[in-house]
Amino acid sequence: MNFYLTYVLVASALFAFTALFTLFALYSERKISAFIQDRLGPMEVGKYGSLQAFADILKMLQKEFIIPTAADKILFILAPIIIFVSVYLGFAALPWAPGLIPASLNLGLFYIFAILSIETLGILMAGWGSNNKYALLGSMRSVAQMVSYEIPAGISLLSVVMISQSLNLQEITIRQGILTSEAVNFLGIWDVKAIGGILAWNVFQAPHLIVAYIIYFIASLAECNRAPFDIPEAESELVGGFHVEYSGLRFAFIFLAEYSMMFLVGMIGVVLFLGGWNSPLPNISSVSLATWTTGIGWGIFWILTKTLCVVAVQIWLRWTLPRFRVDQLMSFCWKVLTPLAFLCMLISGIWRLTMM
Amino acid sequence: MNAEQLIFYFFAALVLISALMVVTMQNLVRSIFLFFVTLFSLAALYVFALADFIAVTQVVIYVGGVLVLMLFAFMLSNKELLNSLEPIKRTFKLNHLAGIFICLSFLFILVSLIVQIDFSGLDWIKSAAPILEGDNTIHAIGMHSMTRYLLPFEVLSVFLMMALIGAAHLARKGKKI
């Protein structure tokens, strides 16, 4: 019976983490946007507005559940749950530290990719269930965008899998540090197995993966509907997109899903390309920084730091770049990102056969 | 009955009930969304058969692909056309008899086959090595699709290429069409 208790504990810990992260991200998004636009941001609630996110959540909890009369009630109620659960299930296969992974699946990456595709269904459900033309338009745009951008994202992830020869995220991470039993070559020539650190990350093991990471990062922005790919929620055209009719806790769940998705796609990128929980500090002869900074506590610290940096870049881009037009968005995906991703996959195959 | 069996029967019942409801439901959109329940619980049954790759592939292809395509087709179709669909009448008519007969005979063939076959005595089941829980099945799948099943694999890829080219040809703004 004990392992059932562990399952429940792990699941609640992950849920608590996503909720905490969302609070933190809400505050940081406001502060970063304020910094970029040269204003102060929230300053009233708490010191430097630090309690603003809690105040927002309190406000959300108190709001009334409003169901439009013409809405399809079952779909309308179920949609936010499906959207959130699909993102939350993705966290199950992500490695946090050496030996610390909720579910070490052989199919880890494939599983996450599959589970995330359920979110499109939830968005369509919300759009149709609201019985509102803005919501429907927003959900159609969102799904069209997510389905197209899954292709470059998937293929750029495949080019990593071809180098790592595994779909298990824990194994992919181990192969990028000092704990591996296989050869690790910096740029394919210099053996850095004992040195580790930043030199052993996947992007530096095979330099074309830098391109693959940029492709993945752009596609992941589109998958979580962030600017510059936020036409599904374009406030100036669609009021609020697929979640325009939602209020209170249901809206909070959609919001939670959106921010968890940001963290999730950032973390997948970090695990696959930027060394996961491996330390960025290399061993320099007797000063073995990499060995000292590898462990369970350090692992969690490194992966959190790296992922939060990626999330910060996502926020920064949102407040810097203007929105894409629909035709630009599609032609950028199909005419630039997809061929480049295919090229990366081809180079990966050649790299695997010749350099490793 | 242990917990695993309980979960298995739960999902099996879910597959059957939701599949029945998909067919009988009058509201088309809801029945498409219910189809998701059917496909997802079918994926759960694949997990019980230790075919985790098939389970995940089922979710990717059917939920992420086919189901979204069905919804798109539904939402982009003409509203007048959908309204003109007559609701299914539940009264019995003589021309339903042929359908009932075909269904019953298929059921009879299936049931009689299942009754006749002695599953544990089949040669290919006896000789096959059992799959264990921790096995890495994707390695075997990769090896086999590149060696033993190379021809079907390549034929499939050519077929998908044909479908892609055909779709692109139909979608482009042609001068002739």
UniProtKB/TrEMBL annotation, chain A:
Molecular function GO terms recorded: NADH dehydrogenase activity; oxidoreductase activity, acting on NAD(P)H, quinone or similar compound as acceptor; quinone binding
Subcellular location: Cell membrane; Membrane
Family annotation (PROSITE patterns): COMPLEX1_ND1_1, COMPLEX1_ND1_2
Biological processes annotated in GO: aerobic respiration
EC main group: translocase
Any one GO CC term of the record: plasma membrane
Main location: membrane
InterPro entries per the UniProt record, alphabetical: NADH_UbQ_OxRdtase_su1/FPO, NADH_UbQ_OxRdtase_su1_CS
Membrane topology annotation: Multi-pass membrane protein
UniProt keyword Cell membrane present: yes
Pfam families per UniProt: NADHdh (PF00146)
Reactions that this protein is recorded to catalyse: a quinone + NADH + 5 H(+)(in) = a quinol + NAD(+) + 4 H(+)(out)
Transmembrane segments: 6-27, 74-97, 109-128, 149-167, 198-219, 251-275, 295-317, 329-351
Assembly and binders: NDH-1 is composed of 14 different subunits. Subunits NuoA, H, J, K, L, M, N constitute the membrane sector of the complex.
Role according to the record: NDH-1 shuttles electrons from NADH, via FMN and iron-sulfur (Fe-S) centers, to quinones in the respiratory chain. The immediate electron acceptor for the enzyme in this species is believed to be ubiquinone. Couples the redox reaction to proton translocation (for every two electrons transferred, four hydrogen ions are translocated across the cytoplasmic membrane), and thus conserves the redox energy in a proton gradient. This subunit may bind ubiquinone.
Protein name: NADH-quinone oxidoreductase subunit H
Gene source species: Daejeonella rubra
UniProtKB/TrEMBL annotation, chain B:
Keywords on record: Cell membrane, Membrane, NAD, Quinone, Transmembrane, Transmembrane helix
Catalytic activity, reaction form: a quinone + NADH + 5 H(+)(in) = a quinol + NAD(+) + 4 H(+)(out)
Entry superkingdom: Bacteria
Signal peptide: none
Transport listed as a keyword: no
EC number: 7.1.1.-
Topology relative to the membrane: Multi-pass membrane protein
Protein name: NADH-quinone oxidoreductase subunit J
Species of provenance: Daejeonella rubra
